[in-house]
## 1
Amino acid sequence: MISMLYTKTFVQLPWASFILKFRKNLSLRNNIYLLVLRVREEKKMNNINRWLQTSGVLHRVRKPSRYIGNEWNSVIKNSKKISLRFALVFPDLYEVGISNLGLRILYDILNNREDVFAERAYLPWKDMIEEMEKVNVPLFTLETKTPLTEFDVIGFSLQYELSYTNVLLALELSKIPILFEDRIEREDIPLIIAGGPCTTNPLPMERFIDAFVVGDGEEIINEIAEALIQTKRLRKVRKLETLSKIKGIYVPVFHKNKNIKITKRIVNLNDYPIPTKQIVPYMDTIHDRGIIEVMRGCNRGCRFCHAGMIYRPVREREPRTLAKSINELVENTGYEEISLLSLSTSDCTGLNDLLEMILPKFEKNKIAISVPSTRVDAFNVDIANKISKIRRTGLTFAPEAGSQRMRNVINKNISYDDIFEALKKAKESGWTRVKLYFMIGLPFEKDDDILEMVDLIKTIKSNLRFKEVNVSVATLVPKPHTPFQFAKQISPEESFRRFEILKKARKYAKIFLHNPFKSLIEGIISRGDEKISKLILKAHMKGAAFDDWEESFNFNIWKEALQEIEIDPNEYIRERGYNEKLPWDFIELGIDRNFLVREYEKSKNALTTEDCRWGRCTYCGVCYNLGVSNILVH
Amino acid sequence: MEFYTYIGRVKKTGVLRFLSNMEYMRSIERTLRRAKFPIWMTQGFHPRIKLSFPIALATGTVDLTGFFEFRMVEDIPKDRIKNLIKEFNLKAPKGLSMTNIWKVEKSGVLSNVIEYYEFKIIMKRSDISDYHMNKNDLNVIDLDFVKLKDFVVVEYIIARNKITKPENVLDNLISNTVNKTFYIPICYKAFDKNFNNIVKTIEQFSV
């Protein structure tokens, strides 16, 4: 009986019932166990898979479902029949990485090609890392449990600066030399490339990555795959040379002379299908829902916003194709919630059409829709009510600043009345909780502005009578390619001082301050140059990892690293001159320097700039520099 | 909205044994949706599928007795049930499979009738140096060791309300710390209060 059961739990064997008859014969039963184990081990399992399944490690680590793979819609191909093995690595935990839309898109495009097999790898949590190091198991992919070194190319997703140490950790766990110069001669080590929003300033990472991809990935990923298949038998240097000729790729070793321009890639979203066979994870991930990108880019022009500058221009998708894909997505995944993703979904001109098309069916099947990034001025109670009929989700607004002057400084383009009216309507429609996002340390901010923030929170709580108000406050980190790239970032001490003023609002709301030391490190890396790669390496060697996780971030490590390599943080968070050469200038996103200067000047005087979708052209330069234009449904 | 109550039986094998109970339930729910079961949802602001398991298994346990109760909005004839099961198994990740569905009069059958569970834990003999039969602290009803050349199998029956992690059972039985080694716990069978196989009992209740 047990033999049968054991075979059933491991492999389905047709002769299981036959064994039943011999259940008394213990030696035979033992042999069956051995047979089963051996058959599995030799034929199907590689070493890592065997280790995972037979060493008991998954009993010892927390949340073992992070490491088992085997999710619905994950793709497994016969690796003998393909020409290029691609590892997509998200340098953070599974539950963060699996939620990322970019990797979902690339995974889909790559695996739709017959000649490419793309697999995923995420960074394991510390308990698993310890286990892996104990028995010398390298970082592996989830699909086939293959070590990363066996791939042709490894692609990292650089989504936020505080994940940079994780990239180094991932390389170390994979037994891959961290520094580029130690790898270039080693043909047995895969090519390491990186994409994502952080490649708009690649210098801090250029000693660790062979090639950076700037801009939208849909088109270029195919070009990379083809180039690498064609150069498969060539040496690594030749491969990199081929990549360096593709538009939008920065290869540090071939582009040493920074006089070149690396122009970002842009696609029309309507030319590319929406990935509808999205992987359905088992565990509770940070965005545990289907994702449909309704639009890319945002022209609102908030002066602090990195995404709002680097993803220009606005490109909307056709509502009809969207509706079709959403239905497919629901059928393929079984998700009970679909997120209509973009930088500002309520601005999407086709949103009403889309909702009209999908809501009847969704209401019937009780599938919820979430619309993230709702702007206060565009908050349409009708839309909110329509959506919340199915499942009421939380209400989150980002006024960003407390006073009107400051909202003009950052060009948020919303008024006090907008905020008040939107929240009033929401309250009337039945929402009792609201979450608000604010920033401190904005350029030209005075203490009075923070006092006004207190007043605003007080009004929301006392006058509008929300039951619960949650306020999340972060220190501004000026980002490259934004008008605030010239601005000074305030020190952690100053953040704490300004937060003290805000604490007056504690009577009315729960207030949470994002760790200012984390913001400091993020700021140093964001506007960093080549020297910062030393800092990242030093911090990594001292054990910095998972810096984006509050409980893992250790400022002392970074402080020591800064001292040891003699970097003055103030040098990196200082104000920059308009004529100063900035380290990221050679990355061409189409945005004119003059536009950024003009915007920064305007912010000094608290003047706003309109969105070019409904106002006049702001001459940001993207359209005429890159030969593109906004793509709107209406 | 009107609903009909059903009992389904699934199995969780292979690597899926490392799903936690919540993850297990969520993947069943999503598979039901993919297989287009006409599921009934709770009303209100947060509609949810009604899916109830009589027990929560520890992460890492193979489940061969995955009985659960759920509701559908249609009264489904027997021949269509077969198709639904087939569809479920097509849309389920490897390691999750459905073996049967019974329609029952009212809810609560499972929690009322299941009284005992039989567990088996398989270990490699080489991982264990010493073990002893000591069921005093364990609340187990029937404890048995099956010694094989390379394997040891612990078999026990335990009351539903006294179920503990297989790991705890092993800790009590085996001198060297077993949770550092390889073992496969299996939730093997469910019984009613007279130790009859629960499948027969459910069949009595089914309509």
## 2
Amino acid sequence: MNDIATTLKENTHKPVKITITLPTHAYFMSGIRDFTISLIKNTTEFSEQWAYRFQSVVDELCNNAIEHGSKPGEDIKITFIYNPDESIEIDVEDSGTGMNPKKAADIKLLVDQFVQQNIPMANIRGRGLAKIVHEWTDELEFIDKPEGGLKVRVVKYLTHIETEVLKKGFAYSEDKTHILI
Amino acid sequence: MATPASITIEDVESTTPGMVVKLAKFTGQLDESNVDEKAQQIYQLIEQNPANLNLIFDFEDLEYMNSKSIGYLTDWYGKVYENGGKIVIAKTRPNILDILQVVGLTQLIKTFSTIDEAKFAITH
């Protein structure tokens, strides 16, 4: 990973695109989470805090694709596109063959409803897309693929983070159990 | 095949009659591959102690939790609270605290830097 990171960093102004195809099994997600943290920390200007945040974003998007979009034995596809000094885009695609595939419009409606209202305490589900992914990205788009299946596209801009930090003074404190706000 | 994670539970001495206090230590990563199974340990604990159960969750060695594990946390809190108990969290790592904050859980469940602070809060 460090050799790859060095190579990528040498091409400082070229977009970096990495695509990973995974079998539909939750077991593989811990490896993808580790990869996401390493990628963000070693090859982008995003902070360590954002590396952990993108870990959660990727995990939630993939879990959604595995649960609803692709049946066992098929794949999901994850694409990272890093534009140096600008943004990171993460796309997660399923095949539309899962037990409960959703159209882009349906899932957008569901997420919008959860974003606008408080999720009931007894609800086990609903916080992944509506809270974690929605709050930690600047763009969240659901796209029906022509060949079938759903593509979820998220983008986070570095400039927006700088603005947020200036506005909120948001950063980790020295005390690892607390975040300064 | 599941991601490694564990929950170990021990008794905490309480001087208040009728108050049950347990310390639950979480380790590893709670994700889609293991959370449904691991959550049952806490549900069993709640079933075995139907009234005045007070839980301290030690998150020092909890490396990751996904949205479903947060969903379980809110459900446990609701069940414990309606039966006269409390849940507090101690020694949370920054990335876990960040997730708890973004979903609004820190407004519901108090977090503490040390186990002693959490014990004091729950027994006073």
## 3
Amino acid sequence: MKNILKTVYTLLLGFLPLAVLAQIDGEFVKPRSGKFLLQNATVVTITKGTLTNTSVLVENGKITQVGANLSAGDAEVIDCTGMFVYPGMIDSGTRLGMVEVSSVPETVDYAEIGNVTPNMQALTTINPNAEAIGVTRVSGVTTVLAVPTGGLFPGTAALINLNGYTPDQMYGGFKAVVMSFPNSGRRGRFDRRSEDDIKKDAEKAMKEANDIWENAKSYLELKNSGATLQYYPEMEHLSKAISKELPLLIQVDAASDIQNAIKWVEDKDIRVIFSGVAEGWRVADEIAKAGIPVITGPVQDLPTRQSDRYDAAYANAGKMAKAGVKVALRTDDDDNVRNLPFHAAFAAAYGLGKEEAWKAVTINPAEIMGIADQYGSVEVGKRANLIVSTGDPFETRTQIMHVFIDGYRIPLSNRHIRLYLEFLERSPGLKAN
Amino acid sequence: MKKLTYILAALLGLGLNSQAQTPKGSILIKNATVLTITQGNQENTDVLVQDGIIKQIGKNLSAPSGVSTIDATGKYLMPGIIDAHSHVALDVVNEASAPITSEVRMKDVVNPFEIGIYRALAGGVTISHAMHGSANVVGGQNATLKHRWGAKDPAEIIMQDAPRTIKFALGENPTRVHGRGNGIQPRTRMGVEAVLRNGFNEAIQYKKAWETYNAAKSQKGNTTPPPAYSERLQTLADILDGKIIIHCHSYRADEIYMLINVARDFGIKKLVFQHTNEGFKVAPEIAEYTMGASVFADWWSYKFEVYYSTAFNAAILQRNGALTSINSDSAELIRHLYHEAAKTQRYGGLTDDEALAMITINPAKQLGIDDKVGSIEVGKQADLVVFEGHPLSSYAIPQMTFVDGVKYFDIKEDKDDQRQLIAATEMVEPIFLRADEEAHRCMQDVDAYFEAFQGAFLLEEEHHH
């Protein structure tokens, strides 16, 4: 009897792990690395033309070969006949991963309190498991700039790839100190300040910006001369823009503010990128002359002024590019960064042209951020951020078939897709109660 | 002389009538690819419009004398796009003073001068459903607008032959405004149901009181005084009598299912769900018991009750047989609804016909105007859009937009400066750099209720739909 019990207990214990596993139904597909051969595609390299019947070999996170008749060797072959390979798209201004539900303050982590907080790190607040990341990357957007907002110097933006389990794994090798350039205009219909007050406020804000900048300069000079400095993280981080360790990403939109910003940076030996630039088209020649690269968007946006042409925002990128400005695009979004290709399409249709629009979401941001050796085109040696599609990814009817980020094959799944699979044919369906 | 005075008075009377004569145009559009929506696509086809009505669709039509011709070779012609959820051209949106405000009418706050009308036309939208906001369980009565840009009389842009509709709202917005903001029912989704059932039962009693009074009135020696008139209850009674279509702001499946049950209990059949982000979960019920859902193409996670949404919502609803439309609820999105509809091809692989129906005939059905607009058919009102490129292409550009055969938008005549009146004193024009504030007005006029919760975030990008 005792023996029988023993046997039963042993059997039960033996089954225990199975009993636990019984709660798990179905397989979870994870991103996985490996050696992949994207075989026989039309490869839109962006920088080196469009190559038909071409294959791309992905190894150790990099693109190692691009050409016809590549031998697969031990690579996993993905037949891309009839399909297109593009570089992953880069959204150069988002809050992706910094917020989960935008109306729930507890989940909003992109705007810290304070006017001068350049030490706030976007990379710190990136939630690698934010639902929107999975939703975004299946659209072919593989890389985004996460930008904090808030005060005059709200923080430090960081480029992230949309794969990885820690912010450091996601980090894409570019940071910038963010500045919200003082706004000299009226902010909207609820802004009831008098014109005098608007002017005074703008002057005050500009003076404050200058004072802070001078402080940071002094800080850097003292530091460089070997002085013992008190802990001053704001100045420590701001001075990185002055020493050119990091560029200054200046958020500026209204035409007069853009002009002021051009003047403001004129005598400063710093790396500057303008972002937003909603009214860039009004002063495009001046931006081009100053040689300042621009990240603009959203493209699908209202004109900034009631009196503007309806397509002012659609046409903005094209007008700036025509004037000679190097233009990258952003959605300035958090949950619908997946729409970047559609913003690009609108910019293309309203004057930028398809080729330039593609550059504005690939090689241009890579060049503006100084990372073109790794990003922005399908070229040997670059990071394997790639998408495979049935057609032009800017078109809604096109399906994205494969996404690779840092050489990882990304599962084409997310909550939106899982809900679709569950509810398309619900069971039970309609049942009388 | 007296006679003349009478005639003049009669004429003046006509002029004052709100059923003002609206402009009607005649035009022959030649050689377009005509996307009729209801009768397939017709290549190299002409459409003749006379006095605002589509008179003929065919090949080699010739223009009657006095009717001008437009060559649309290589272009697409589709019916005017209809937005079943908009707040464009409204001065105010929410009367957030009580959980039921059915007496309020949006037609009293229509602003025909709002530039949003023109911008919608530039996106091919000829009709918008100008809705009350979502602060109340039962909001105000909406207005269906025809985008006759340039009209000065609000009545002229109201589609007078459209049936009455009313805004309802479930979930977070009414519970936040009234429960959390004012400390009255509803604070929960249970309370929302109670407000609805109490309201309809009160309306039934109100109806009975009037029926009793009207019956007694004809009796000899009757001294029964009439019941107090209530526009609020009369409107609810009109809903029960099937005279008004409910358009209900809703997100979660449970609240959608609740309203379906309430509607069934009260015999209400004219019910359309708006937003309906979790409509996909109760798609069979929506298909069976309602006039369907009007949804966003891809908006989600801007508030908690839309966190579990999917961009495949429209496709799931469509495949389950629910009448489905794509709306904007935004002064920005309204300008590219053709593109929003096209997203149903990315998310669920809908056909061109299905996608286009979602911004034309389907919303027309949900607004009760499908006998007049929503497709290119002989006899229908000539609301038309000429597109360069197929309207479902991301590169499509609307070229011309007609309402009742009158051209209100032409990309070639578009002006760089849209100001109708340039004031010399206007030095600093408002620059709306935060478009959301302008674009999304579902919860306009109730911001005060949120300051306690969101103070610091009000200036940030926010959606309050």
